[in-house]
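Please go through the protein record below and explain what the tokens say about the fold. Record follows.
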Amino acid sequence: MAERVSEPGRQPGVIGQGFANLWRGIRDEPRLFAVATVGGCLFTLTGVASSLVLGEATDRVVIPAIRRGHADWSAVALAAVALSLVGLARALGMFLRRLAGGTVVFRLQARHRHAVTRQYLRLPLSWHQRHSTGTLLSNANSDVEAAWAPVMPLPFALGALVMLVVALVLLVVTDPVLALIGFVIFPTFGVLNVWYGRRVWPLYSRAQQLRGEVSAVAHESFDGALVVKTLGREEDETARFAVRAERLRDAMIHAGRLRGLFDPVMEALPNLGILLVLLVGAIRIDAGAIDVGQLVRVAYLFTLLAFPLRAFGWVFGDLPREVVGYERVEAVLRARGHEEYGPRTLTAAGPASLRLDAVTYAYPPADATADPTVDATADPTVDAASDPSGEPAVPASPGDPPPRPVVDAVSFEVAAGSVVAITGRTGSGKSSLVNLLARLVDPQAGTVLLDGVDLRELAAGEVSRAVAVVAQQAFLFDDTVRANVTLGMDAADDEVWAALRRAQADGFVAALPDGLDTMVGERGTSLSGGQRQRIGLARALVRAPRLLVLDDATASVDPRVEAAILADLRESAGASTVVVVAQRRSTIALADEVIHLDAGRVIGRGRHEELLASSPRYAALLTAYEAAARAAGALPEPAVRESAVRESEPALPEPAVPEHVRELEPEAAP
């Protein structure tokens, strides 16, 4: 799909758009934001009040004390009480502003992180395949933070706005000439903020995009740590990360230079105003137009206004980054591709029947630069021909050839309670077919039916309740064995042990230091590949699925353990319909029917013995696999395999293998 990053700059303006975004957040937390704004107003207005108290104290305490040579202590005490009350009110305002304002920010960030995460989970697998994990992490973290960062200083800025109005009125009442200085300074401040927002927005937009790229490279390097270390690619990965990090550094420095110019100017404006007030005020005192107390009041007002003006600077300075972050988050929340669900449910119990009618699926064109911050609704390549998962059923552009189907008009039926094996060479479409059976993706043509119901017509959650998929690479969470098997399911320990027993995992789990409570480490690093696969299988079995799909799920276990697992599945096939994607002869031979795929098409169907006799391509596939595995040492020579296997794990019971499997030992292969 040809994707295009939306351009906020085309909209009415960064500042207007930024405040519109903030208003949406304020409407979510109106009461707390109102408390924060009251605190901000109280804080700033007490500043104005302190200028009045200082002016009066100058006229009534300081000047008389200078003239008389001693102070009136009753007047001093009164001034101290007044200043203390103003200080307490100012502290209360600061407390309310920071507490309520911080709560608003953290609630908004948490709410949007949850929304982004929920959207990630709703979007189909095909959408995730087009976006890097690092970019998605950046959307949920730094983009969300940037989207709501200006909310924190906003109550202070609103209080400063109230203070500004009151201060300007007080300036006019005190001395209209000095007030003119304020009427020059404050509009200049507004003009500078508008100029800054327009200049810095594209710089922050680029920086946020680069943050996602840096996260993507870091995540990929850490996730592939085994490959990096075994191949000695540490320096290359460091260099690859350094390139992205330096680009981000340069972008942030470019934006920082502009802000480095903006912030000092914002700091200088109020101080420039104070200097002008003192110069003009001295002239006005000499002319007898004002007294010293009034000049102190005006100068202190400008001093107080310096800090609130910084609050305006914080808000306006963060608005460009806020607009970028908000749009990147909203682009994820608006992303097309969420699956459509119907109203139907599966009411039957026991194993489910499965049927595929002319199912066709092709992966969308890859886009290495795909970014979630895409307005897919405005993309002309997405039209009414798009499938429910949001993937285009037409080429991304008229000149591009249509993508080759990885599953091409596949049709077959699996009776309830039977075992079907799917085999084929690498790239034949087996794993893509598994994704279709679990509705991780939807076909562009044809239907996948469970108990005669199209998967797209089922209500949300129905497919996951009826279908369990065990992948070749079992993913384990950094949690206990029990938690990895149940994954939040309310299952008793007896049920967990029963599932582990069926997956031939109860022996090694019982030998772990804490049994079911043993922590397995991130991705199950404390377990072997075969142990992780058996935990993954137990995770599926404990749910008693009506359709169990094994995608080469026993490839990492030794042949004897695999035979015991598959024999158990065969014996209990009446509990679930089983679809096995496999290459091993021993696995395939357990099936009631074998489906042979090649280039996404079904080129053979029947029992294992029948296909061996009638399909040279099928026979060549199995013998080639075993020959390659034996040459690599993964399988023993036929003459010694049986004795070697018997000696490998003498504690395990001999599995009950069906008669037709015993007849198909490797030495009997054609």
User: Anything to note?
Assistant: The chain has three domains: 21-174+314-337, 175-288, 352-359+403-630. Residues 364 and 391 are 6 Å apart (CA to CA).
